[in-house]
Amino acid sequence: MNYVIAYDLGTTGNKATLYSIDGKLQASAFSSYRTFYPGPNQVEQDPEEWWESVKITTSELLSKAGVDTQEIKAVSFSGQMMGAIPVDRNGKTLRRAIIWADQRSVEQAARLEKLGNDTVYRLTGSRITPTYSGPKIAWIRDNEPETYRRAHKFLQAKDYIISRFTGEFGTDPTDASMTLLFDIKNWKWSERLADTLGLDLEKLPEVFPSTSVVSTVLPVVARELGLSEKTLVIRGGGDGACACLGAGVVSPDEAYLYLGSSSWISTCSREPVFDEKSRTFNFAYPIEGYYCPCGTMQAGGASYHWAKDALCKLEEEKGRSLGLSAFTLMDDLVDGTKPGAGNLIFLPYLLGERSPRWNINARGAFIGLSSTHRKPDMLRAVMEGVTFNLKIILDILEKDGKFDKIRLIGGGAKGRNWKQIVADIFGKTVTIPEYLEEATSMGAAIIGAVGTGEMTLKEASTFVKDVQFISPRMEVHEKYLRLFEVFDKAYMSLLEVYEDLAEM
Predict the structure, then answer these.
(1) DSSP string, 262-318
(2) Longest dimension (CA), the chain
(3) Alpha carbon 95 to chain centroid distance?
(4) Could you give the CA distance from residue 282 to residue 293 in angstroms, rounded to a whole number?
(5) Cα separation of 502 and 493, whole Å?
(6) How far is residue 198's CA from residue 131's CA, in Å, rounded to a whole number?
(7) Could you give the strand order of the β-sheet that contains 255-259, starting from the edge strand earlier in sequence?
(8) Domains plus CATH for the chain?
(9) What pLDDT does residue 339 have?
């Protein structure tokens, strides 16, 4: 049996997962690393800690799996996107990584406004925001000129780890397309965008297909990690793109919803999907010639986590005494509620909002709260509010064709009630795959398997198997459609309030 190791370099840590070549999960290991907050809107990590986590997880994974390392044909990668990691010619980092959550580069992003947001949106697939890599690199040039001068290349998370495995510098279209520097239609770096930001194109890595073989593992690294020197290193992709592939979305009539801390809906398409209000965005799919239209909200699962922390201390204590998750007990409470939560609406903007509102000043709220409402109603309202917000994204992505069903992954898919709420609000069948929280690593593994030539994409797409199907209740759907209109109206009515609060 042959195997692929997928490394998923997330925000909280690195997860190494071993898959057999037929897509069966064999073993996994996780190692966390620190996040630093050196100033307002500044978020950084140390790439050396990423590498240490790779070493730790590889050792643990090989110990758990007990497979012959000669049978590990490839390692592949997914990683957090929209970062900026400056390295010198030897691959040594010149400062900590500025990661995706960092928004210090507001001034630099604003330079792109001279081109116009619509021009940038049509060129890159994304609206102008400081979260992307290009403005972050420009911030380094403006504020740390010596670091910028010494930088040979600016890399993404997975690309840095690949450089440690191979000594080679490069990236792939999925990560390149989330920089505000990549021409998404012509699949190349944009001189126009780089010039506007004042950046040197030669400091950007060459772009290779996600499925391309970088090289074999360096002998010294193979010995350090306990791998074979014959193991192939496959380029891989950004975590959002890998998740789309790993969720089994391989054609334009398919879509998936990830219910995690942040939550998003994505599909794949032959062409980018442009919204007239720039509410959604597009990045490259791991398979050349396709795109991932997507909308990502800030606080999806995070809103429900907030509800647990704010409202459910009793359930947490009871859960600890019974050996149960607090979320299981919260589900028990919601079981007794009715759709619509007694006309209680929750606006899920606890962290501002990306898609579809793009309003950093937006805040959360319960609308319609009365003396008859209790904690179970509030919990249901939170799940419904998140799903209403996601429906806006779904409606945008469906402007050129409807999805018959939607695949649900992430932690939110574990609960009994939320998946039924999704089915009822969307009016679609919701499917649950065998591996709920492995889509990103599965996508990286599929890229690895295709990259080695062991299988085709069509063969690999059969890896994702649905084990549960939730049908919508259409009478409930009709009720939700009326409440959805009120949800949108409630947000619009509070826009001035949000601005007033932001100025206080």
Answers:
(1) SEEEEE-BSS----TT--SEEEE-SSTT-EEEEEEESSSHHHHHHHHHHH-HHHHHH
(2) 69
(3) 24
(4) 4
(5) 16
(6) 17
(7) 281-284, 291-297, 263-267, 255-259, 405-409, 429-433, 466-470
(8) 3-235 (3.30.420.40), 301-392+475-503 (3.30.420.40)
(9) 98
Considering the chain, what is the average pLDDT of its residues? 95
- 470-492 confidence digits (pLDDT tens): 999 999 999 999 999 999 999 99
What letter would DSSP give residue 368? S
Chain centroid, CA 359 distance in Å:
19
Give the Cα separation of 13 and 35 in Å (integer): 10
* Sequence letter at residue 286: P
Count of other CB atoms within 10 angstroms of residue 216:
18
- Tell me if residue 383 falls in helix, strand or coil: helix
End-to-end CA separation in angstroms for the chain = 63
Q: What is the pTM of this model?
A: 0.90
Per-residue confidence at 462, pLDDT binned at 50, 70, 90? confident
3-state secondary structure of 6: strand
CA-to-CA distance for 308 and 326, rounded, in angstroms? 8
CA distance 87 to 70: 32
Closest by CA to 440, choosing from 298, 245, 174, is: 245
Full DSSP string of 421-457? HHHHHHTSEEEEES-TT-HHHHHHHHHHHHHTTSS-H
- Summarize the confidence of residues 280-284 as an average pLDDT: 96
Cβ-Cβ contacts under 8 Å for 474 (sequence gap 6 or more): 427
CA-closest candidate to residue 157, choices 295, 59, 33: 33
Integer Cα distance of 455 and 83 in angstroms:
31
Spacing of C-alpha 497 from chain mean position:
30
3-state secondary structure of 466: strand
